[in-house]
Design a protein that fits this description.
Shape: elongated
Strand order of the largest sheet: 3-18-5-14-15
Number of helices: 12
Number of domains: 3
Helix content: 40-55%
């Protein structure tokens, strides 16, 4: 279409010409602006330095984030049922009556079998005791006697007279004799027993059971009577019942094996007790405490770095959600604080484990239990894209870089122009605002 011989193409050419002029004026204005009038080399160096610093900070943050999530995942894994070496899979043995026997060791097979232990006699060592003498009275004779077995023995010699010529008391004589015996290789332990001013020498074999006897002979002096046996050696006698089958045993030692599954018992007295395989409560409590601490540490880290990126915010929401009902957490000895952190009570956990161990174990290590949920949340967090973890950080890092396409600062003249131009920040044909913008720059 043409008006008075002038086509629309001519008008477009005029607009293009005017836009070119405005672009030239804009470039001149930038050159005159002291904020933006920097040498290209200086601007480039500053930009590279800023970008390098930001990249290094991003890498350091991502590493710290990964470390936090890994710690949480490892703590949760210690309590997962699928972890055969974890705290909830490592069955321990407990004794229902520790006055009869205590349990130690670890099951070589994962079994919930109970072992009934009936002790009819504990193993004993030989014991000799001298006749009582007045501890403070002066000794009337020297000591010269032998203590021991066919393999190892000691000759005890104690003079009743001191080096200065004074007399020793009976208690002094007995203590010197006991000291010589204890320093020897004889398989005997000696001690002096004093009560109500009366002292006696007590000799006990170091090993229990028949065949570990010792002899005492010679000039006993203040230890007269110690050559006589007061308690004879004896073997332990006990029986173990499991799965309806009872087996009798005899042992020279009070430390015995039960059931051939890696469990040891220390026999303490006669009577009956039940050995039961169950979760080691102390080990489980320690692992659960570690999980709570790892969760709190991750929660604090994510809270403190929430603005770094959208991924951080998503992970923060993820670990807070779905911890479990208040009642379920309470059964595990866990409470949720007002700031979403957790607190753990070992005493509450142990009480609930004793009251309802199956439920407590299931809430912690069962399918979709606390350990599994925490593990999956941490694992998912580790798979979060690195860019999402720092995308918020990058915008802030460059917000003050003049001329940057990502700059949001009001000091950026392009942004000012964009406030008035409907066609975009870089539209040089918006004649109504170009002049104002150039005045702003100059």
């Amino acid at each position: 279409m043409a008006i008075n011989g002038i086509g629309s193409y001519g008008l477009n050419s005029l607009y293009s010409y005017q836009s070119t002029i405005n672009s030239l004026r804009f470039s001149q204005a930038i050159y005159k602006n002291p904020k933006l009038n920097q040498s290209s080399s200086s601007t480039s160096a500053s930009s590279v330095t800023s970008q390098k610093a930001a990249n290094n900070a991003n890498v350091a943050f991502v590493k710290e984030y990964s470390s936090s999530m890994t710690d949480l995942m490892n703590a949760a894994n210690e309590l997962r049922a699928s972890n055969k070496n974890g705290a909830m899979s490592d069955l321990a043995i407990t004794s229902s009556n520790e006055k009869v026997a205590t349990a130690s060791g670890k099951l070589l097979i994962k079994s919930d079998k109970d072992f009934e232990l009936d002790v009819t006699q504990i193993a004993q060592a030989q014991m000799n005791v001298s006749e009582g003498v007045k501890a403070g009275a002066y000794a009337s004779a020297d000591m010269n006697f032998t203590v021991g077995d066919d393999k190892n023995s000691v000759n005890v010699k104690v003079s009743a007279v001191k080096a200065n010529g004074g007399s020793k008391t009976n208690a002094q004589m007995l203590r010197e004799a006991a000291d010589q015996i204890n320093k020897s290789k004889a398989n005997v332990t000696a001690s002096v027993v004093e009560k109500d001013g009366v002292a006696s020498l007590q000799l006990v074999g170091k090993e229990t059971g028949i065949g570990n006897e010792f002899k005492v002979s010679g000039e006993m002096g203040a230890a007269a009577g110690a050559e006589n046996v007061k308690t004879e050696t004896a073997n332990a006698k006990y029986s173990v019942t499991s799965s309806g089958m009872t087996t009798d045993y005899e042992s020279k030692s009070n430390t015995v094996s039960v059931g051939y599954v890696g469990v040891n018992a220390e026999l303490k007295g006669t009577g009956q007790t039940t050995f039961k395989a169950d979760v080691d409560t102390n080990k489980a409590a320690s692992a659960l405490s570690d999980l709570v601490n790892a969760y709190n540490s991750s929660l604090k880290f994510l809270n403190n770095n929430f603005e770094k990126g959208t991924g951080v915010g998503r992970q923060l929401e993820s670990i807070i959600r779905g911890l479990g009902s208040e009642q379920s957490l309470k059964q595990m000895g866990i409470t949720v604080n007002k700031d979403a952190s957790l607190s753990f009570s070992k005493s509450d956990f142990e009480k609930n484990m004793a009251k309802d161990p199956a439920l407590t174990r299931d809430l912690i290590s069962g399918a979709n239990g606390l350990a599994d949920r925490m593990f999956n949340k941490a694992s998912s967090g580790l798979n979060m894209s690195s860019n999402s973890l720092v995308n918020g950080y990058s915008s802030n890092a460059y917000s003050s870089s003049y001329g940057s396409s990502s700059a949001k600062s009001a000091t950026n003249p392009y942004t000012v122009l964009g406030m008035y131009s409907r066609s975009g920040v870089y539209n040089m044909s918006n004649y109504n605002t170009v002049g104002m913008m150039i005045n702003y720059l100059i």
